[in-house]
Amino acid sequence: MLSDKMQEKLNDQLNFEAFSAYIYMAMSAYFESMDLPGFSNWMRIQTQEELFHSSKFFDYINDRDGRVVLKQIDGPPTEWESPLAAFEDALKHEKIVTSRIHALAKMAMEEGDQATYTFLQWFVNEQIEEEANVRTIVQHLKMVGKEGYGLFMLDRELGQRVFTMPTTTA
Question: What gap in Å lies between CA 25 and CA 33, rounded to an integer?
Fold first, then answer.
């Protein structure tokens, strides 16, 4: 059984993951408005990943005989200065997610909640991948530069991304 404090913090993260999906959906819409369907696709896939993450928290809280509490989600930003600025914001956001996951894992260890600590290890590893993927795109966009030469090629590359449901979720 989850402590009241752990249940509250896991619910906060469940809702934050849903907010993350909302941010990436807004970025997808931004890229659609710029006629960058590949960038939009990348963000739509990111939206699906974040919803999957939220669902993992939902299921875990229920599996531990907890109570899921859904909260209101604030509206995300809807405009960015450039594709680079949008991806830089995405990287900042992923770093916030990482810090939140690490804080949850630390709390689980302090409480001696081995089950929650083990559950959170999947997210610790996932965040390494999340940050690395976004950081690579930021670097590619910096190489493209303000002139935008190569943006079309990067758009085509990002359009190839597909959502693959993780086979190992533990």
Answer: 13
146-156: per-residue pLDDT in tens?
777 889 899 99
Q: What is the DSSP string of the chain?
A: ---HHHHHHHHHHHHHHHHHHHHHHHHHHHHHHTT-HHHHHHHHHHHHHHHHHHHHHHHHHHHTT------PPPPPP---SSHHHHHHHHHHHHHHHHHHHHHHHHHHHHHT-HHHHHHHHHHHHHHHHHHHHHHHHHHHHHHH-TT-TTHHHHHHHHTT------S---
pLDDT tens-digit map of 18-69: 999 999 999 999 999 999 999 999 999 999 999 999 999 999 999 999 999 9
One DSSP character per residue, 65-100 reads T------PPPPPP---SSHHHHHHHHHHHHHHHHHH
- Residue closest to 45 by CA, chosen among 25, 19, 68: 25
Residues 127 and 26 sit within 8 Å (Cβ to Cβ): no
Tokens of 170: 């533990």
